[in-house]
Specification:
Elements (H helix, E strand, L loop, with lengths): L13 H33 L4 H28 L9 H19 L4 H29 L5 H25 L2 H16 L1 H5 L14 H6 L9 H21 L2 H9 L4 H30 L3 H20 L3 H27 L8 H29 L2 H19 L8
């Protein structure tokens, strides 16, 4: 094996972890600022009488791009033989391309251009995410992955907070997109300066039929990988059903007078709770050598949060739901990521295999709008939507117990 494929044994330093976290924050800010605020506002401005459909169309097609892009870019980065390493070139290209997509969105005044801009953001953002996710199993020893996973888990939450903050504080929809683009470019600089990325010195000849077949990982041959994929899919689908229409939930069900500020406040509360639980639970999981009990417990807590939003559609209820959801999601993000890195089939294909896992993150974004829009409009509204989110999340939490090779 080349150095790039060896199982890591040297602990990583805090500065390296901070650089990886910052790059993750940048890509999630570029996604979640638009998803939580800007795309909703833009949809309402372009099609005020049909805002839910436009918002669901744009986010759904963008998520479909994500489903395809993440594993493909992961597989390409696994085979990249650049002098700077396998991952760093795609972190750079993803940041530049994602910023271009955000700039397209900043000037969009029609649904078509919204679609084009958001698909570009998803395409290149997933190139960045596939590469930056794979650096953890590339360089972090197993005994350190709970802690590092906890810090990386914070990136999604901090990215939501930064993205929503930029979208809310910077004036206008266009200004919000430009601010997110600038932050994305800045966020990857520390990682690119000290990536520690190992160059791949030999590459297996590319045989296209084998390349495409590699994206199917048999659940019979790798059952734990299959269960890990399914449970992550269910938990992310439940989370997607619960958070996709938060802006409209505050506007239409809660009756909040300023829903974009409301989203910012809830995101800040949620983020604080994630911060308080993510790193501590990851370190605790490393110490006791157990993963599944943490993931199952966190899923149950997240289901309770969705139940609160279903039965208590008020501003105090939304705050309580944010506290509970953040507490559960912090534990889930940190420990589940560490669990996933321990069921990967091959060191040679780490980014591709994590890309297949990331389909379980992005595919729910395709399905959630298709399910949520008719439920909200025709099948009982937000109580039914959040009840469904709770049920799906609880199912995923229970099925984590089927993973056998990780305790």
């Amino acid at each position: 094996m080349t150095t790039a494929l060896a199982e890591p044994a040297v602990p990583v330093r805090g500065r390296w972890t901070a650089a990886v976290v910052l790059a993750n924050v940048g890509v999630f800010a570029a996604w979640l600022g638009p998803l939580q605020v800007l795309l909703a506002q833009q949809s309402e401005a372009i099609a005020p009488g049909n805002k839910e459909f436009v918002f669901g169309l744009v986010t759904g097609i963008g998520a479909a791009v994500s489903v395809v892009a993440n594993p493909i870019f992961g597989a390409v980065s696994d085979r990249t033989t650049a002098r700077r390493g396998r991952r760093a070139p795609w972190v750079f290209a993803g940041a530049v391309g994602g910023a271009v997509g955000l700039l397209v969105l900043s000037g969009s005044d029609a649904v078509l251009w919204m679609l084009v801009g958001w698909c570009v953001v998803q395409l290149f953002g997933n190139a960045l995410l596939a590469a930056i996710t794979a650096v953890v199993p590339d360089l972090v020893p197993t005994t350190q992955r709970g802690v590092v996973g906890g810090w990386v888990a914070l990136a999604q939450t901090l990215g939501a907070l930064v993205g929503v903050g930029l979208a809310t504080v910077v004036g206008g929809v266009g200004g919000g997109y430009i601010a997110c683009a600038a932050f994305l470019l800045i966020s990857v600089v520390p990682y690119l300066l000290r990536s520690g990325d190992q160059a791949l010195t030999e590459r297996t000849p590319l045989v296209w039929p084998e390349f495409w077949k590699g994206f199917w990982i048999s659940p019979r041959r790798y059952p734990d990988f299959g269960w890990a994929w399914l449970t992550r899919f269910l938990l992310n689908l439940g989370n997607g059903l619960g958070t996709l229409y938060l802006f409209y939930y505050l506007q239409d069900a809660v009756g909040h007078s300023d829903p974009d500020v409301g989203v910012l406040v809830l995101t800040a509360i949620y983020s604080l709770c994630v911060v308080l639980t993510a790193v501590t639970s990851g370190a605790w999981s490393d110490r006791v050598g157990r993963r599944k009990v943490f993931v199952t417990g966190s899923g149950v807590v997240m289901a309770v949060a969705a139940g609160v939003l279903a039965v208590w559609p008020t501003w105090p209820g939304a705050i309580v739901g944010a506290v509970i959801l953040g507490t559960g999601f912090g534990v889930y993000l940190s420990v589940d990521f560490a669990l996933l890195t321990e069921v990967l089939p091959s060191a040679r294909d780490r980014a591709k295999d994590l890309g297949v896992i990331n389909i379980a993150n992005s595919l729910p974004q395709v399905l959630a709008p298709a399910v949520a829009a008719p439920v909200v409009k025709y099948a009982g509204g937000y109580p039914v939507l959040y009840g469904l989110a709770a049920a799906v999340t609880l199912l995923g939490a229970v099925l984590v117990r089927q993973i056998r090779s990780v305790s």
